[in-house]
Design goal:
heterodimer; A: 879 residues; Ubiquitin-like (UB roll); Arc Repressor Mutant, subunit A; seven-stranded mixed β-sheet; six-stranded mixed β-sheet; 19% helix; 30% strand; B: mainly beta; Folate-binding fold; four-stranded antiparallel β-sheet; two-stranded antiparallel ribbon; 6 strands; 38% strand; globular
Chain lengths: 879, 80
């Protein structure tokens, strides 16, 4: 045991049991995993990622590159940041972490916070800044990544000051204090993302601050020498923290290797903890640690640790000496922690006297204080002799580790430079320095200095790599918060949804909507169910919930003019009480969306859109009204959710509708195709439309949403004598494809014109509309564009996969020319065979020809046909 | 990024959709322009490093389309 008998901020009356790699150990309240492991003489925590070298605790904080552990589902945690709790089971990483296949059992939440002042870092500078801001009555948030406030002051004789200051911070009501909370992203206009660790999960804080005070402190950096990665080698400041804050002796015999004054107090601290100081090696005195050797135990287990160091004069040659030790405390100076500052687009400059990068131009409303601002007095850096790498004999650089987590050495940096790379960004990408989960906190500036030394440039001219969020690894679970499973995104349900559920519908997602896909009877599979549903629509009567269609209410004296400009066809002749199919193009002439436009009253219209396109169409319409056609007096309202829509479809649909509306004349003359009527049934007000998306005689019955379920149930009751059959989106797709009706987004993909679809009939020649000018462009008018055709596979039972590419030769040499692709493909009950729609180059010239779809291992042959397979004369539709 | 909606004030960027460059005027008479001019209008957009006049719509709010000037380097926004 290396636990000291007294001292530190741990509570020796509250022991904590934990295990590491299966071995039980004991720590105390106030420990983290790293301090508890050191207290139990566990020197080797993990094996390095590339070379599998044993590694031990290197730091006492977030910058830890070595001591990586897995705890439960958390695959890559720093032992220095894992709070010790009873029953903790940790495993040291052997190379890479392994993703757990178990569901993440943690609970994560998101909090949005607003404040005048956000202080990041709860050390001396941060606490001071928060005290000052708190006095003004402003809303202040102070965050610190550790379990308690104080930073380097903890266990360093500042207890009274800390107690008084934190007491003062707790009294103002608008000061919020967050511990175990790491600010990891600093975005535009002071949006700061903060990850707070909680016992069984965490909280993601999204704080918007008027002013941000960065009191992020400084990270100590190591000096680099041969075999500088053995367990027992650690940052000098970390050794002090383990002794003073955690009451742990991280070794028995120590050597100190330094180039600055910060280690002055260390020797005394170590001695008080019973650690003998075997040597103090100071580059300012002309000496350096040249190399290290392992402890005699060797091998695995508790061996593999540091056994001693070789010390040599800086000038080379001279007398060398070997000193046995199990702890080597290294300090190469301090780097102000400016990750967040840089993320917020603050600029850095290299300070020659301090030998580090300090803040230069700060972004608006960002202030840097304390060590982060280059005030390294608190760290005691004092005089520093900039020094980076101790060269070894024979120019072997293969164990001079620059990035411990990534296992990158000086040899790798030299290799990068010898290939001609000069930019620190290129060297980073070639060597992977700084790309580990520690983001190179102990490696980055050393990398810059090595490049500068090699190239004979000033350090400041080489600069640093771009700092990007996140400052620490953040789990996807935290970012998702509760937005997973059913809460991943909003689920939209129609008024009739409970009926669909009760009647066994299988649902599919259409945008955010849940739509019945098909209604299986007993143990029917989808194919059997859809064939049955289609047959019912063609031969009897079937019913579908069409409520999800997008609906835009359009009102105003200029509504007709507006519609004429938006749609390719004209609406000025459409009478009140009638509707018309309309098609919309974008400015490039490509089909955008389609739907039915209804003329409801004077200056009152309603346009339906595709289910998925509703929001985009409304935005598109608003854009033209608000930015180009500001003179048009038109108002748009989304009414998608206001209406429930029951589509009653099939040759017997009139019988069902008659049962519901006995007084309403339904004969084709009184209520023709594309007419609208208002009526009511059983007290439910209903707007009836003769619209069809199946090609059959059909009625769409609209009612306000809250009547939706009642209307649906009334239709089912009225349809019972006719064996009315509910059907879902799959049958809907088949029925419309048999008629050659397109679906925007299925047949079209933003590169298809109305002409390509064979829909030139819908392009008005009498008026301007969006996209018209583009139809005259040479490329848009090309005769060899892909055109909509039908395909009949030669084998009646063979189903072409949607998306299959089409070629002209069944066995052409590869690469062969692809002339089109399948957009829709189904089995048809009506045709008693499979069929497909496709976009095919010069398709209309190929009618009757054969095309081929090469699939995995076989080829499907198909005949090109017109894209209408059923009732070309529209006899059934108009009946 | 905070975007100033003329109706609602500063709101998070996730409430908005980007509407592209605001400097492209729809030709007064589309039929009168030649193919090259029309193609420039349809397909070509500026992509400056620095100040850019652009359109945004407060799609998850008041649905207002508006124009602002954004610095594409610093994301500083000044109203147009």
């Amino acid at each position: 045991m290396s636990r000291l008998a007294s001292g530190g901020r741990i509570d020796r009356t509250r022991p904590i049991q934990f295990s590491f790699n299966g071995t039980p150990y004991r720590g105390y309240e106030g420990d983290n995993l790293a301090s508890a492991l050191l207290a139990n003489d566990v020197r080797v925590v993990a094996n390095s990622v590339t070379y599998g070298r044993p590694r031990g605790v290197f730091s006492a904080g977030v910058e830890e590159p070595n001591a990586l552990v897995q705890v439960g589902n958390d695959t890559m945690l720093r032992a220095t940041q894992v709070g010790l709790v009873d029953g903790l089971e940790a495993i040291g990483l052997n190379g890479r972490g392994r993703l757990s296949l178990e569901p993440d059992g943690h609970r994560y939440d998101k909090v949005y916070a607003h404040c005048e002042v956000l202080v990041i870092g709860g050390g001396r500078a941060g606490i001071t800044a928060a005290l000052e801001a708190g006095q003004t009555g402003d809303r202040v948030i102070l965050v610190d990544e550790q379990a308690e406030f104080g930073g380097r002051l903890l266990g360093a004789g500042w207890n009274d000051w800390l107690e008084t200051s934190l007491g003062a911070l707790r009294s103002p009501p608008d000061v919020r204090l967050l511990t175990r909370a790491t600010a990891f992203g600093h975005y535009d206009q002071n949006l700061v993302l903060i990850a707070q660790r909680l016992p069984n999960g965490g909280r993601l804080w999204q704080a918007r601050a008027k002013r941000v005070v960065l009191a992020t402190g400084a990270h100590e950096r190591p000096l680099i020498f041969a075999n500088n990665d053995r367990p027992g080698i650690m940052l000098a400041g970390a050794a002090r923290a383990y002794v003073n804050r955690y009451g742990v002796a991280p070794g028995k015999r120590a050597v100190i290797f330094t180039n600055n004054d910060s280690t002055d107090a260390l020797a005394g601290d170590l001695k008080r903890a019973g650690i003998s100081v075997e040597a103090i090696v100071d580059v300012r005195a002309g000496e350096a640690v040249l190399d290290t050797f392992p402890s005699p135990a060797g091998g695995g287990g508790q061996g593999g640790g540091l056994g001693g160091v070789t010390i040599a004069p800086l000038t080379g040659g001279g007398s060398r000496r070997e000193v046995e030790c199990d702890l080597l405390c290294v300090s190469g100076g301090f780097n102000p922690t400016l990750h967040l500052f840089s993320q917020a687009q603050g600029r850095l400059r290299y300070d020659e006297a301090l030998a580090c990068f300090v803040p230069d131009a700060a972004p608006p409303n960002v202030e840097v204080v304390g060590a982060a601002a280059g005030d390294l007095g608190g760290r005691g850096q004092g005089t520093i002799m900039p020094y980076w790498v101790v060269p070894s004999d024979g120019q072997d650089w293969s164990t001079h580790f620059v990035d411990l987590e990534r296992d990158v050495t000086v040899a790798d940096v030299r290799r990068a430079l010898s290939t001609g790379m000069r930019s620190v960004e290129h060297v980073k990408r070639f060597t992977t320095i700084g790309t580990g989960s520690d983001q190179g906190k102990t490696a980055g500036i050393n990398e810059t200095a090595i490049i500068a030394t090699q190239l004979g440039q000033p350090v400041g001219a080489v600069g640093v790599t771009t700092f990007r969020p996140p400052y620490v690894p953040v789990s996807f679970g935290l970012m998702a918060g509760r937005n997973r499973g059913d809460l991943f995104e909003p689920i939209r349900l129609t008024a009739m949804h409970p009926w669909h559920v009760a009647h066994g519908a299988v649902f599919e997602n259409v945008g955010q909507w849940k739509r019945p896909w098909y209604f299986p009877r007993h143990d029917e599979d989808i194919e059997t169910a859809v064939l049955r549903e289609c047959r019912a629509a063609r031969e009897g009567v079937a019913v579908m919930d069409a409520s999800t269609l997008g609906k835009i209410d359009i009102q105003g004296p200029d509504a007709v003019e507006f519609l004429n400009r938006m749609y390719t066809n004209a609406f000025d002749t459409l009478k009140i009480g009638s509707c018309r199919y309309g098609l919309m193009c974008k400015v490039d002439g490509m089909v955008f969306d389609d739907g039915v436009v209804m003329h409801l009253g004077p200056d009152h219209w309603l346009a339906t859109t595709t289910t998925g396109g509703a929001a985009a169409v409304l935005e598109w319409m608003e854009e033209w009204l608000q930015t180009e056609w500001t003179d048009l007096r038109v108002r748009l309202t989304s009414v998608t959710d206001h209406w429930a829509d029951v589509a009653v479809v099939g040759p017997r649909s009139r019988d069902v509708v008659r049962g519901l509306f006995p007084k309403l004349p339904l004969d084709p003359e009184s209520f023709p195709f594309m007419a609208i009527r208002e009526s009511e049934t059983a007290g439910i007000p209903v707007r009836l439309h003769r619209i069809t998306f199946s090609g059959e005689l059909a009625y769409e019955l609209w009612t306000q949403s809250w009547y939706g379920l009642a209307l649906w149930e009334a239709v089912m009751a009225a349809g019972e004598p006719f064996a009315i059959t509910p059907y879902g989106t799959e049958a809907m797709h088949v029925l419309r494809a048999e008629k050659g009706y397109i679906i925007c987004g299925q047949e079209t993909d933003g590169t298809v014109t109305p002409q390509d679809l064979g829909m030139s009939w819908i392009l008005s020649k009498k008026k301007a509309f969006i996209g018209r000018r583009s139809h005259r462009r040479r490329d848009t008018a090309r005769p060899d564009r892909k055109q909509l055709v039908g395909l009949l596979p030669v084998e009646r039972d063979q189903l072409l996969p949607e998306g299959a590419q089409l070629v002209v030769e069944p066995d052409g040499t590869i690469p062969t020319k692809m002339i089109g692709h399948v957009t829709s493909s189904y089995r048809s009950a009506t045709l008693d065979r499979t069929f497909a729609l496709a976009m095919l180059q010069s398709g209309r010239e190929r009618l009757g020809a054969m095309v081929y779809a090469p699939l995995n291992g076989h080829v499907v042959s198909a005949t090109v046909t017109e894209p209408i397979f059923y009732d070309k004369e529209n006899v059934r539709r108009d009946s | 990024m905070l975007i100033p909606c003329p109706w609602c004030g500063d709101r998070e960027d996730i409430e908005f959709k980007y509407g592209g460059s605001a400097d492209v005027a729809y030709p007064r008479d589309a039929d009168a322009v030649d193919d090259a001019t029309w193609a420039r209008f349809v397909f070509f957009r500026p992509n400056p490093k620095g100040q850019m006049t652009e359109r945004w719509v407060h799609t998850a709010g008041c649905r207002r389309w508006f124009t602002l000037v954004r610095d594409t380097v610093t994301h500083q926004i000044t109203t147009a």
